[in-house]
Design a protein that fits this description.
Length: about 230
C-alpha cells in the first residue's frame, strides 16, 4: 500500500476540482483492489462524508447517526493511526455494534483500511477503503506515517476546494432559528434582530439557543460559522 499512498498524494495534487478529486479517489480505490471509499470529517456533534458507498447505506448511516455507533470510528478516534479491520464477530462487541456490522455487510462492507488524522480545532478526519472480502485485508501491509501524510494532503485539498459532501449530519432547524442565525452572521445583535423581526428579545434568545443546540455549538459565533459551513444560511 505504501506506493499507493504516494500515488494518491500525486494524483490528488493534480486534480483541478472536487469532481476530479472524487474521480481520482474512486479510480485509485479500485486499483488498490478495494470496493469503495469513504472520507469522513468529524466534529464533536456533526459529521460530513465524501464517499462512493451505496447511496442507501450513506443515507441510513447519517439518518441513524451511526457515527456514534460505528466501531471503526471509535477505534480511529482513540488510535489516530492507520489500522485494518474486519466485521468478524469476536464476541466482544455490544449487540448494537454487531447489528451495525451486520447492516454494513449487507452493502458489501466487510473489512477495510482506515486512516485517521487530526485536522485542528477539535476536528479530525478519516479515509476508509472498504472491501467485501474479509480475507483481502490480511494481504495488505502499510506504513502508518505514509498513510497519514497522504490523507493529510487529501484533506487539505478537499478543504481548500470546499468540496461538497455526499452526506452530512441531518440538522433540523426551524425558519425562525435560521433567520436569527443569518442576521447574527450579518453582524446584528439579538436586540437588533428582535426589532427587525418584530419579535421580543426573549424569542430571539430562545431561537438562537435552539439553533446552537441543533448544531452542537457552544457559542453564537460558532453556530453561525457552522451554519455557513453547512450551507444552511
Amino acid at each position: 500500500m505504501d506506493k499507493w499512498f504516494q500515488r494518491l498524494t500525486e494524483q490528488v495534487a493534480l486534480s483541478y476540482d472536487e469532481q476530479a478529486v472524487k474521480s481520482t479517489l474512486k479510480r485509485l480505490t479500485r486499483e488498490a483492489g478495494f470496493k469503495a471509499y469513504a472520507y469522513l470529517s468529524v466534529q464533536p456533534e456533526t459529521q460530513t462524508a465524501i464517499s462512493d458507498y451505496s447511496e442507501e447505506w450513506q443515507q441510513r448511516y447519517f439518518d441513524k447517526a451511526y457515527a456514534f455507533v460505528d466501531p471503526v470510528v471509535r477505534i480511529a478516534k482513540s488510535r489516530m493511526a492507520a489500522f485494518s479491520w474486519t466485521n468478524a464477530d469476536t464476541g466482544k462487541l455490544t449487540k448494537e455494534r454487531r447489528n451495525f456490522y451486520g447492516e454494513a455487510a449487507e452493502f458489501g462492507i466487510r473489512c477495510g483500511l482506515s486512516m485517521p488524522i487530526t485536522t485542528g480545532f477539535g476536528r479530525w478526519a478519516m479515509l476508509t477503503l472498504a472491501s467485501d472480502e474479509t480475507s483481502f485485508i490480511d494481504q495488505q501491509t502499510f506504513n502508518p506515517v505514509l498513510a497519514a501524510a497522504a490523507v493529510g494532503q487529501l484533506h487539505a485539498r478537499l478543504d481548500l476546494m470546499r468540496a461538497r459532501p455526499t452526506r452530512r449530519t441531518n440538522i433540523k432547524m426551524k425558519s425562525d432559528e435560521l433567520t436569527c442565525l443569518r442576521w447574527s452572521a450579518e453582524g446584528k445583535s439579538m436586540k437588533a434582530i428582535a426589532i427587525i423581526e418584530n419579535t421580543t428579545y426573549a424569542n430571539v434568545a430562545f431561537f438562537i439557543r435552539n439553533a446552537k443546540a441543533a448544531l452542537g455549538a457552544t457559542t453564537l459565533p460558532q453556530a453561525t460559522a457552522m451554519a455557513k459551513e453547512f450551507g444552511l444560511i
